[in-house]
TrEMBL record:
Pfam families listed in its UniProt record: DUF6198
Presence of keyword Transmembrane helix: yes
Keywords (A to Z) from UniProt: Membrane, Transmembrane, Transmembrane helix
Protein name per the record: Membrane protein YczE
PANTHER family (alphabetical): INTEGRAL MEMBRANE PROTEIN, INTEGRAL MEMBRANE PROTEIN-RELATED
Lineage top rank: taxon: Bacteria
Organism field: Iamia majanohamensis
Keyword Membrane appears in the UniProt entry: yes
Length: 213
């Protein structure tokens, strides 16, 4: 586990954590509703959802827990934010998709796909900036990178693998996928500059090209 944050840090960080994860889930739901392409991991989640009939948010939760299992041999440290990430984002995605119908008009779908990564980027800035633990997929990335491979190559390998498998399963690849891939790094970086808290004692400062996943 990560070092236990003090109460003062938790009082400031938990609201940011909650809001950040809700924004991340809302951004993903917006892209699913737009049906113009998803981020690499969500292409995988949607492909699995289409094949199994399980809601995409629930699949996201299941994949998150499976990824956490891969942390065990990598000796990654789980934080409050890590566990919240696994559960909350998927619940928010399923919640939005249960109450909002997919639009048929391109005039609505294009703004949705444009807005999705922005919401996800801001949510990531709040979530990561709370310094309560990395998302499961980013923890996998950093754990593998410590074995000697450059971080960028590990990240690219994981995301391209998720994208390829998801596309083969029927997940939606499109302009939204390109926008997410190109935009999420700068968006998260900008959000972190303005939304990060000082980390609790014993925790590293947030940063780098990461997302809330």
């Amino acid at each position: 586990m990560l070092p236990r944050p003090d109460r003062a840090h938790l009082a400031r960080a938990l609201p940011r954590l909650a809001l950040g994860l809700v924004l991340c889930g809302t951004g993903i739901a917006a892209m699913v509703l737009a049906d113009l392409g998803l981020g690499p991991w969500d292409v995988l989640h949607q492909g699995l959802s289409d094949r199994t009939g399980i809601p995409i948010g629930t699949v996201t939760i299941g994949v998150g827990f499976l990824v956490l299992l891969a942390w065990v041999p990598l000796r990654e440290r789980v934080g409050i934010g890590t566990l919240a990430n696994v559960v909350v984002i998927g619940l928010v995605v399923d919640g939005w998709l249960a109450v909002v119908d997919a639009p048929s008009s391109v005039a609505v779908r294009v703004p949705l796909v444009a807005l999705g990564p922005v919401l996800f980027g801001v949510g990531s800035g709040l979530y990561i900036g709370a310094a309560l633990g990395p998302g499961p997929r980013d923890g996998l990335m950093t754990g593998l990178a410590r074995r000697g491979a450059p971080t960028w190559s590990v990240r690219a390998g994981l995301e391209l693998t998720a994208l390829a498998v998801g596309a083969a399963l029927g997940g939606t690849v499109g302009v939204g996928t390109v926008w997410f891939a190109l935009g999420i790094g700068p968006l998260v970086h900008l959000a972190l500059r303005h939304l990060s808290l000082d980390p609790p004692p014993g925790a590293g400062a947030p940063g780098g090209r990461v997302s809330a996943r």
